[in-house]
Design a protein that fits this description.
The protein is 81% helix and 0% strand. It contains five helices and no strands. The protein has helices at 4-27, 30-33, 46-54, 56-84, 88-121. The longest helix is centred in the last third of the chain and has 34 residues, at 88-121. The radius of gyration is 18 Å and the shape is elongated.
Length: 123
């Protein structure tokens, strides 16, 4: 029987698939999908980047994508490294390093998202 982290890994993989699909549709397939959904004409234009930055929904989606992608990636890395270096001490060290690195990257990415949103709200 697999543990709860395995189930979270599967769910995070589905979430990454859905969120990354939405990101690709908005940022890279706007010409294709522009007929069905109101999309910005140039998604990387600074005024449109600022407009998305003002949106709490976009900021929340970015943080959710960041968290799920980091968990999914670090769980996979953790699994590979524990197979390469079996043993309790090595496993505990690998687990601690993955949680610390993932937490640090999540904190930096979340800070950047919130800081950009705060800066874009200033007129």
């Amino acid at each position: 029987m697999r543990g709860r982290y395995w189930v979270l890994n599967l769910l995070s993989g589905l979430a990454v698939f859905a969120l990354l699909g939405w990101h690709m549709a908005v940022m890279h397939l706007n010409d294709l999908l522009g007929l069905a959904v109101s999309m910005p004409v140039v998604p990387l234009a600074w005024d449109q980047v600022l407009e998305r930055g003002r949106s709490a929904a976009y900021a929340g989606t970015y943080v959710l994508l960041l968290g799920t992608a980091l968990f999914h990636g670090f769980y996979g890395l953790h699994t590979i490294l524990k197979e390469y270096w079996p043993g309790r001490v090595a496993g505990n060290l690998i687990t601690a390093c993955c949680w610390i690195a993932g937490g640090a990257l999540f904190a930096v990415g979340t800070y950047a998202t919130i800081a950009f949103r705060s800066a874009s709200l200033v007129p």
